[in-house]
Each structure stands twice: as C-alpha cells, then as structure tokens.
Design brief:
11 strands, 47% helix, four-stranded mixed sheet, binds magnesium ion
Length: 384
C-alpha cells in the first residue's frame, strides 16, 4: 500500500488518477487532495477517497460538516502545506503551468517519488528540479503520455542508452484546417470535442499551436538527459504510438495503446508493476494502418519559436512559457485571435531581457517580468 498526494485533483489528470485509486483501494491510499477552485468537485472526491489533508487555492465559503475531520489548507501554497503535513510516499503533480513548480519542489523534499504531469516545472526549472531529485534520491516518473512511453521503452531496453527519442504528436484540433484560415479560429473551434473544455482549455490550445510539443521536447531533454538535437517530433494523428526510442543498432522500440491517459498515470503510480486501468484494448486489425509525417512549421510557427527558445536556453524557455500562458489566457478570454497568440509570444521573446535563472527565486522573477511585458503587449494590441 502506498500513500499518494493528488495535486490538481479536480483536473483531467487528477480525476483519472482518482479513478485508478478507486480501482485499486488495496494498493493506493490518497492521503492528500488539492485543487484550485472547484470546491464541490473536490468535496465529492474527498468523500470517496477520504484523504487526511486537503487544500484549495480559493477558500470556499464553508466546508461541509461531513468533511470537517480532514485537515484543510487554503491559499496559493495549499499544496506545499498539505504535502508537509501528510508526507505521502508519492506525489502526483498535475497542476497546470508554472503554478505547479513550488509544489514539485516541495514534493521533492517530502516524498520518495514524484509522478510528474506538470511539464512546466522542467521547462522553467529543469536543472534545479533534476539536481534536487538526484541529491535527494527521489525518483521522477513521467506521466505525460509521450514521456511515459519513452520511459516504458527505456525500462525495456536493459540499460542500453538511446541514440534518439521520437515524440509523436497528434497535431491538435485544427490540424486539418486550411492554413490561411487558422488565424481566425475561435475558442470553440479549438476546444471542440472537449465537453469539459474549462478543464483542459490551456493544454488544448497548446496542442493546436504545438507549443505543447515544444514544451515536451524540453521536458524530455531533462527527464532523459538527452541533447535537444537527439529529440525528434513526428506527426501521428492516430495517437496509437505514444512515442519511440531508437538505439545504436538502428532498432526502435515504441509503446502503443488506445489513447487513454489512465495507462500512463497508473504506470507511474504502480511502477514497476502494471495494474488494470479499465483502458480499452487496442485492436490492431481494427486500426489497420498507422500514419506518420513531418511537422509543417508553417502551420505551427509556435513550435518553431519554442524550439528556438529551447536552443537559446537560460531564461528563454521561462520567458517563452510565461508569454505563452498569458497569450493563451487572452485568447481563451476572447481578447486576442488564435493567430495573435504567436505574434504576441514572438514579440515578447524579442523584448524580454535575458535574465539569471540559476535559482528558484530567479525563475519566479523571470516569470514575473515576462508576464508583465507580455501583458503590456496584449493591452497595446487591445487598444488598437
Ligand atoms: Mg503529452
């Protein structure tokens, strides 16, 4: 039996992790649940999972009587406080954005294993996070489907080092659109097919621009200690091959399955064992064919920008991430067009000064400065 914290419990990854816990109550005890503001959803989960402690960034008006035995924490640092109070074996970090970084750092201090769904912690604080994990002997297990796939392939590689990592990419919700029409895509076009779009709106937009894949290349670089030039991205709209690893002899290993995040989440939770997830089995004859093709950079200019920022290193990825978070937020709120996201991130990257990013405090400062400058650019465009 392992105790686990689910940070970001009401989000897409968090609720699927809760599902895995409920399927295997003999294996997992969710002692910590935290969320941003969806208190009713968190209360429902708390009734089912009975955590010792729970946290909400936005304090609700009241806590239901039947949940008053739980230790509650509120405010921006509720996840850190909850982790320190309960010290679970594992922490699933599934808060979206750089907002998840402080909890990842605390989890590295308090837990034996960190199951990482928050890619921004590595994009913005990659060296700091990896060094801390190494120093404390904490195992970082990826939850992102591509990185989980690579992790699973490497586990099967009998310690042979990979010569190349290949991340697959679905292309997002606008992949079949006419390139000339992309600029005018609406929020509803981008998040179509996501009935609970509020939940994963940010990442859905990032998939449509392929910024998400840019962030994932960075994530892979740190997680697997691989130089950026040995990490490739290939389009694979079927989302059956979740990523691949190539070895010196030319052999490739791939991990396949139906696109169900519970497989990656459960593998991280139960590693090195595998457990039932309820995921639909892959019927290869039914799939029949798999397609792959190269990334069209004209369609995904933000992917190119991300690749360049990653190459530049230092504070550039922090600035990129902050500018993108602000620009995507402005798009979701209807302030800028879909095409405007790239223009704003590009201008922000040109204007934001290079800064020191050698400490967690320095990372937050870069992030803060980058957001202020990006908001200025957005506001100026708004006035026109
Ligand atoms: Mg992914």
């Amino acid at each position: 039996m392992r105790t686990i914290a689910i940070l970001g419990a009401t989000g897409s990854i968090g609720t699927q992790a809760a599902d895995v816990v409920m399927r295997h109550p003999d294996m997992f005890d969710a002692t910590v649940l935290t969320a941003h503001g969806r208190s009713e959803r968190l209360f429902d989960l708390a009734r089912k999972l009975k955590p010792q402690v729970a946290g909400l960034v936005v304090e609700p008006e009241s806590i239901p009587d039947d949940l008053k035995d739980i230790g509650w924490f509120f405010g921006e640092d509720c996840s850190e406080k909850a982790l320190k109070a309960a010290r679970p074996d594992d922490a699933l970090a599934s808060v979206v954005g750089i907002a998840g970084l402080p909890a990842v750092i605390t989890a590295l201090d308090c837990c034996e294993r960190v199951l990482l769904a928050n890619k921004e912690a590595l994009v913005t604080g990659g060296n700091l996070v990896m060094n801390k994990a190494r120093e404390r002997g904490v195992k970082l297990i990826p939850v992102d489907s591509e990185h989980s796939a690579i992790f699973q392939c490497l586990e099967a590689a009998n310690k042979n080092a990979p010569s190349r990592l290949i991340l697959t990419c679905s292309g997002g919700s606008l992949r079949d659109w006419d390139i000339d029409k992309l600029d005018s895509a609406k929020v509803s076009d981008v998040v179509k097919g996501h009935p609970t779009w509020n939940m994963g709106a940010k990442i859905t937009v990032d998939c449509a621009t392929m910024m998400n894949k840019g962030l994932e290349v960075m994530e892979a670089k740190y997680l697997f200690d691989m130089p950026q030039e040995k990490i490739d991205v290939i389009m694979h709209p079927d989302s059956i091959v979740h990523s691949l690893v190539e070895f010196e002899d030319g052999a490739m290993l791939a991990q396949l399955g139906t696109p169900d995040m519970r497989v990656a989440i459960a593998y991280a939770m139960s590693y090195p064992k595998r457990v039932d997830t309820g995921a639909k089995r892959l019927d290869l004859a039914d799939v029949s064919k798999l397609s792959f093709y190269d990334v069209d950079e004209r369609r995904y200019p933000l992917f190119k920008l991300a690749t360049e920022a990653l190459k530049a290193g230092g504070s550039a990825p922090i600035a990129l991430n902050a500018a993108n978070e602000e620009a995507v937020g402005a798009f979701i709120r209807g302030r800028i067009s879909f095409g405007g996201i790239c223009g704003i991130v590009k201008e922000a990257l040109e204007r934001i000064p290079r800064m020191n990013a050698d400490s967690i405090q320095a990372v937050y400062e870069c992030d803060r400065v980058a957001r202020i400058m990006t908001l200025e650019i957005i506001n100026r465009k708004d006035l026109k």
